[in-house]
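Sample A.
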Amino acid sequence: MISLKNPKELAAMKQACQIAAGALWAGGRAVAPGVTTAEIDAVIHDYIVQHGARPNFLGYGGFKGSACVSVNEELIHGIPGKRVLKEGDIVSIDGGAELNGFHGDNAWTFAVGTVSEEAAALMEATRIALERAIEAARPGNRMGDIGHAVQSYAESRGYHVVRQYVGHGIGRKLHESPEVPNFGQPGRGIRLLPGMTLAIEPMIAMGTHQVRVLRDGWTVVNASGQLTAHYEHTVAITESGPVILTLPPEEAIE
């Protein structure tokens, strides 16, 4: 069942989303050569706790971090640990917060120092795909319009859309109905209604759309071993259009 949020619930949910966004960008500021993925996770954990919320990834399904920190060919669900970031890496950070019974979830791909032109182009394309998907998240449209926005743009740039993992509804639970695929046909799928809250998250890869899970049972990597990128916002569908709930406060990204 899809949960439609009223204005009071959306206001409460935005508070959780703002903490999630601030934590994500605090983690992003910590990205640098020589930093471990565990150190980035610690920054995110501390930010969320210091702002009175709970890291909603920590312990979820047994996950051991407060954020997923995925490097280069790692698409999603990277377990924070001893891996040291190097100049030229790209790192996707995915994390969220729960506050007063509501969840926020967001992700971004950050450059470690100066990256290659192909890495920068992949990051830009995935970010633009997210922007186009959000623009399609309007009342009266269909879920396929969101997926088509991602797929058509990414594929026009020569990239591949991962199909095994998708976005999701979010609210009182971190993962709610409906699923939000990054592929689809315009005008198909469930109708988008005001009050829906969606975690829209393009996951784009070079070389292939195929992925595999490492022996740790969590980390999802590009089957071709090439670069991947992941961007995500929590978005509310309103009568006047999509509203991004995880836009970070200005001070968070300075």
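Sample B, a different protein:
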Amino acid sequence: MSRLDVELDALAGLSPAQLREKWNGFAGVCPPNVSPGLLRRLVAQHLQERRHGALPALIARELARIATDGVRTEPVRPRIELTPGTRLVREWNGQSITVEVLANGFQHADRTWRSLSEIARHVTGAHWSGPRFFGLTSHA
């Protein structure tokens, strides 16, 4: 058992006054006015950060922003609906790959396929996301 594990286990037996004292010992400021259970978790977090390092500043800022906003602002990607009759064309290694959307799958090279990913794998010989291969999703 590591020293950190021993310290974390010992937190369970500390009184609220002892938790506040431990907080003062490493934070140098008065502990926040929170329940003993939450203070115990905050002290545990500090001990873990001291041992393993804190979160990168960018992630800490994003978490703080999410906590204050209550809403995560992520771009909404529109869902592309493929209707039967739609043709998808992709240039690959000098070849033009054409796929027709069917009601029950996809037509390519005189064969019906269940998914675009199967076609992408057949064409490239490698695992690809079919929608990504055919340019239906972003590369991010």
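Observation for Sample B: The longest strand covers residues 95-102.
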